[in-house]
UniProtKB/TrEMBL annotation:
This is Acyl-CoA--sterol O-acyltransferase. Keywords: Acyltransferase, Membrane, Transferase, Transmembrane, Transmembrane helix. One of its GO terms (molecular function) is O-acyltransferase activity. The chain crosses the membrane at residues 6-24, 36-53, 59-79, 181-200, 212-234, 263-286. Residues 148-164 have a biased composition (Polar residues). InterPro entries: Wax_synthase (IPR044851). Residues 112-175 are annotated as: Disordered. GO terms for biological process: lipid metabolic process. It comes from Trema orientale. Residues 133-147 have a biased composition (Basic and acidic residues). It comes from the Eukaryota.
Amino acid sequence: MEGEMNKFFKVCLAIVVSLTYCYVIGKIVSKGAKRLICVLPIVCLFLYLPLNLSSINCGGITGFFISWLANFKLLLFAFGKGPLALDPPNNSLGRFIAYACFPIEIPKNPPQIDQKVHNPSPPKSTKHNPNGKNRENPSRKPLDKPKNASNHMIQSPTKSNSRGQNRENPSHKTPKQGQKWVLVYALKALVLAILVTRVFDYKEYMHSKVILFLYSLYIYLILDIILATTAGLARALKGVELEPHFDEPYLSSSLQDFWGRRWASIPAVTATFMVSGLMHELIFYYWCRVWPTWEATWFFILHGSCLSAEIVLKRVVGTTDTWRVSRLISGPLTVGFVMESCFRLLFPHVIQCKTDLRLLQEYDAIGAFLKSITHKLSLSS
């Protein structure tokens, strides 16, 4: 495990050096074909780096953040587009690296403070005529107040949606929301720990469908916790926010709700689903190191086609109460369709490669590694 951590540190160092090179290239090379030629070696390097890691956790996470996210952003950056092509002061080296590796949210319309309400300027000296009217603006009535004036004074300059999020800055959290956020993820971490350390030890006594369901739960929890931890670090170090990727996907009422709002927010474009499928094949290759079976690609093609059909059907029949399906029916159907398609197309190849067993062995190795470090520290003290 110690050797794998040394490899992981070297890979991280190579990523930082490579992105620093790209940052400098952006300053001295104009966008277009010349910058693309300069960036392409880094794109190829980012596809290669995860192959140096034999750990499923390290290789999978590195592949997702650099081979997938960073590479697509670098290709956009070559043509002066995307989050890496920001103008000052948002293009510092630290922010460039953060924007490249992580799903950073960049608010298009940052909230502005109403200067008239919060920073009232001193009144200008004006002259009044004997009738009490302002000479410069005689139609103005100083003593009249608009109706519901108090409401205008306390309104926030930005609007909030029904879920309590700011539309211009949806990641903004109040202190109470922050406390709830910590509690929710602490509970998710506890459930994940119980799955890994206790529940998976009794797989031989479980039905195959139950095991696949637990794998689905594990994938959701580990991805959500990793992205939440990354979001916390990015917010603490650089003051940036990560795009929310998950919003209780088990409560989805349709495929459009699942893919458009609750899981990764993928646009309803079949080509986008195909690219997502190919990138999942790449991540599976980092895990298994065997030639892909293309089942993951077919999974995303299936969902992209079904989602497109759902959108067309909604446009044809409308969303009136006559054709609206109850959430009690559409919810279980949606979640059941997603999980069954995962069971048949996503999981078989990974399980055949015994990725699940290797993953549990890695957790045992991580636990032993942490225990050895704790033992050494206790002896030194």
